[in-house]
């Protein structure tokens, strides 16, 4: 009976281990970068998102986190709310980068950003690239599909349904929507004569004046001569 009891215990222990192994193998892989929010709801506005990157290196600290935003979140509207000391945010065309001095080795990198609004979706995937001070790069960019369990999954935020009456924010005016300014109307004054042309005009005018003066003097001289001749002729006695 004792032997049977021991055998039963061994079988029970083996069954428990097998069951534990089954549950562990069936559990989804834990994301090494996680994203959380206090208001994970579709179309929610002014939402804070907290990202936490697990430290995986025992010799280097995390220096940068590059996040690709899902469709519906404008990178230009993202603001930084909390971050490791010295880290700053830089917006890009499809997301943003937060980085700075390396955090302590073995310390998770945690930062929080605020976005104007979450899109209307069931869940949001934030592809993230993690950089260490020794140049190592971890790419958490794989999107889970169905039962597939990627080795480097992107952090995913599950969203609740949008609140009744919630609506997307109106997009800001784009450059193409802005009317072009009307062309300025300016009066065009006659062009001033070039210096050389002005000099030629002055020279021509001076020559013309001298010519006229010479003609007048010549006419006066001729008239004086005629008058003198007539006077002499009238004063001469006739024989």
Break the fold down into its secondary structure elements and pairings.
Elements: H1 2-26, E1 33-36, E2 45-53, E3 62-68, E4 79-82, E5 88-91, E6 95-99, E7 109-117, E8 123-125, E9 127-132, E10 137-140, E11 156-158, H2 195-235
Give the biggest beta sheet.
Answer: 5 strands, antiparallel
Strand order of the largest sheet: 5-6-3-9-10
Strand content: 15-25%
The computed structural class is: alpha+beta
Query: Unreliable segments (pLDDT under 50, ≥5 consecutive)?
Result: 5-9, 11-29, 186-195, 197-203
Mean pLDDT: 76
> Count of helices?
2
Strand count = 11
Proportion of residues in helical segments: 25-40%
Description:
The protein has helices at 2-26, 195-235; strands at 33-36, 45-53, 62-68, 79-82, 88-91, 95-99, 109-117, 123-125, 127-132, 137-140, 156-158. It is an alpha+beta fold. A five-stranded antiparallel sheet has the order 5-6-3-9-10, with no helix packed on it. The protein has a four-stranded antiparallel sheet with strand order 1-2-7-4, with no helix packed on it. Strand 5 and strand 6 form a beta hairpin. It is extended, with a radius of gyration of 48 Å. The chain starts with a helix and ends with a helix. 15% of the residues are buried.
